[in-house]
């Protein structure tokens, strides 16, 4: 089932999310709905707060980014061909590498894209959908998508990484989004 994406301005997007247990109600269905919602919205990642759940759950499919690249472009990134994965109860263990800029957007903040600096490498501990524990190091675009989604479960948004002046310049657009004054081609829910 395609779920509405929660728009900027909703309190759930600013909550630090709570861990879940294997007996979380209908977790398999929730994850399936998140994949369906993400693909219907043309996203490459989706976090539970974006569908109005304040739990430490997000999904990432960076393979979609690589599928649109030519071979020369793919060669620039060490993480090609990307991953398609579920992350439950994730916690960053280490950030490494230089910070680099990449133009990011967010399904909860439509029509706004900005260059955001993030570390090249992240080591993260998490559970998969079978609640098997993992600690894995990711790099490149996959690390970036992962860090973007991880921010969501920590109550942060990509615009929080912008300099104060740039954020002030976006204030009007952000207020419009929170009031539902934005046209998108996917299902959204607005705080109003």
Q: Can you describe what's shown?
A:
The protein is 27% helix and 32% strand. It is an alpha+beta fold. It has a single domain, classed as Peptide Deformylase. The chain has a five-stranded antiparallel sheet with strand order 2-3-4-5-6.
Task: Describe the structure in brief.
With 192 residues, the protein is α+β, with helices and mostly antiparallel strands.
Relative strand content: 25-35%
**Biggest β-sheet description:** 5 strands, antiparallel
| Unreliable runs | none
Using the alpha-carbon principal axes, give the shape: globular
Task: Give me the strand/helix succession.
Answer: EHEEHHEEEHHE
Helix-residue proportion = 25-40%
- Compute the CA-based radius of gyration: 16 Å
- Tell me the distance between the termini: 24 Å
- The chain-level mean pLDDT equals 96
Query: Tell me, what is the CATH class?
Result: Alpha Beta
The helix-and-strand class reads alpha+beta
Look at the structure and name the CATH superfamily. Peptide deformylase
- Looking at the overall shape, the CATH architecture is Alpha-Beta Complex
Number of helices: 5
| CATH-derived topology | Peptide Deformylase
């Amino acid at each position: 089932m395609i779920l509405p994406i929660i728009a900027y301005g909703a309190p759930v997007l600013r909550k630090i999310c709570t861990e879940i247990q294997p007996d979380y109600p209908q977790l398999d269905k929730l994850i399936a709905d998140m994949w369906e919602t993400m693909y219907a919205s043309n996203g490459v990642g989706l976090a539970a707060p974006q569908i109005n759940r304040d739990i430490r759950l997000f999904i990432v499919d960076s393979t979609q980014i690589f599928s649109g690249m030519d071979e020369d472009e793919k060669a620039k990134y060490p993480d090609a061909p990307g991953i398609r994965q579920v992350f439950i109860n994730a916690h960053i263990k280490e950030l490494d590498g230089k910070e680099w800029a990449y133009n990011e957007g967010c399904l909860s903040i439509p029509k706004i894209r900005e260059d955001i600096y993030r570390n090249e490498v992240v080591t993260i501990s998490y559970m998969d959908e079978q609640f098997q524990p993992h600690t894995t190091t990711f790099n490149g675009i996959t690390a970036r998508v992962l860090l973007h989604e991880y921010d969501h479960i920590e109550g942060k948004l990509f615009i929080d990484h912008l300099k104060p002046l740039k954020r002030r310049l976006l204030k009007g657009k952000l207020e419009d989004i929170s009031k539902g004054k934005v046209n998108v081609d996917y299902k959204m829910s607005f705080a109003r």
